[in-house]
Design brief:
By secondary structure, this protein is an alpha/beta fold. It is built from 6 helices and 7 strands; from the N terminus they run αβααβββαβαββα. The strands form 2 sheets. The protein has a 4-stranded parallel beta sheet with strand order 1-5-6-7, with helices on both faces. Helix 1 (5-24) packs parallel to helix 4, helix 2 crosses helix 6 and helix 3 (62-70) runs parallel beside helix 5. It is globular. The N and C termini lie far apart (44 Å).
Length: 229
C-alpha cells in the first residue's frame, strides 16, 4: 500500500527534530502505556514533545506491548481479530490477537453502555483506524531507532510494580527493532519492585496516575542518573 504524502512529510519533520535533539543532547519521553494515563501526565509535565505516540490512547498490558513491538506491529487491527471487550466496566473495541483495547477508537458518538461500541462500527471504521496506527507504529520505530536520547515510560493500569523480567523483555523487543540510546522506566504506585530494573514509586494521592509535577521530578531524576552513569 502506498504511503500517503502527508505521512511522509510528518515523518520527515519528526526525523529532523530527532536529529537536532541528538546534536544538542536533548531527551525525549515516550509512553508505552499501559493506559492513556502516562501519556497524559507526560504531556502535562511538558516531557512528551513529539505529539501523539502509538501507545497514548490504548490499553495495552506490558506483555502485549512487548509482543507487538517484537513482531514489528504486524497483524494489528485485522478484522478477524477484532471484537468487543471491556475496560473498567465500559465496552471497548479489542484486538483479541494481542489483548489490546482501543478504548478511544470506534466509539459511537452520543452513545453509552452497550451501544458505545458495535461490531458494525468496528467494520466501518477499521480502515481509517488501522491507517492511523500504522503511521504511529512507523513513528514509534523511527523514534526508537534514532540516535536521540529517549526514555520509554510505562505504568500498569492498576499501578502495580513490574517484574524485572517484564521490563527486560520490553527492552529487548525495542532493541530487536533497532532501538538505541534509550531506557525503559517503570512507574508504580503499589507493590514492591524487585531490584534489577529502573522503577520509580509515584503514588496516586490527589490525582489519578499521580500528579504531573511528580512525573516531572521522576524524569529529572532519570535524566540525572543517566548523565552520571
Amino acid at each position: 500500500m502506498a504511503i500517503h504524502p502527508q505521512t511522509i512529510v510528518k515523518l520527515t519533520e519528526i526525523s529532523a527534530t530527532l536529529e537536532r535533539a541528538a546534536d544538542v543532547g536533548d531527551v525525549f519521553a515516550v509512553s508505552i502505556g499501559s493506559s492513556c494515563g502516562p501519556a497524559i501526565r507526560l504531556r502535562e509535565a511538558g516531557l512528551q514533545r513529539l505529539g501523539r505516540n502509538f501507545f497514548d490512547n490504548i490499553v495495552c498490558p506490558v506483555g502485549a506491548a512487548t509482543d507487538l513491538i517484537a513482531n514489528q506491529f504486524t497483524d494489528l487491527l485485522t478484522l478477524d481479530a477484532m471484537g468487543i471487550g471491556s475496560y473498567e466496566g465500559v465496552p471497548s473495541a479489542t484486538d483479541k490477537r494481542y489483548g489490546i483495547n482501543f478504548h478511544h477508537d470506534f466509539v459511537v458518538a452520543n452513545h453509552e453502555g452497550a451501544e458505545r461500541v458495535t461490531l458494525n462500527g468496528i467494520r466501518n471504521g477499521i480502515a481509517s483506524v488501522r491507517a492511523r496506527y500504522h503511521y504511529l507504529a512507523d513513528k514509534f520505530v523511527m523514534i526508537a531507532q534514532s540516535s536521540a536520547r529517549k526514555n520509554f515510560y510505562l505504568r500498569a493500569a492498576d499501578g502495580s510494580a513490574f517484574a524485572v523480567s517484564q521490563i527486560h523483555a520490553l527492552d529487548n523487543a525495542i532493541r530487536h527493532i533497532g532501538g538505541r540510546n534509550f531506557e525503559v522506566i517503570g512507574i508504580y504506585g503499589t507493590g514492591e519492585p524487585a531490584h534489577g530494573a529502573p522503577q520509580y514509586f509515584l503514588p496516586e494521592i490527589d490525582e489519578r496516575w499521580g500528579a504531573a509535577a511528580a512525573w516531572a521530578k521522576v524524569a529529572a531524576t532519570v535524566n540525572e542518573t543517566r548523565r552520571a552513569a
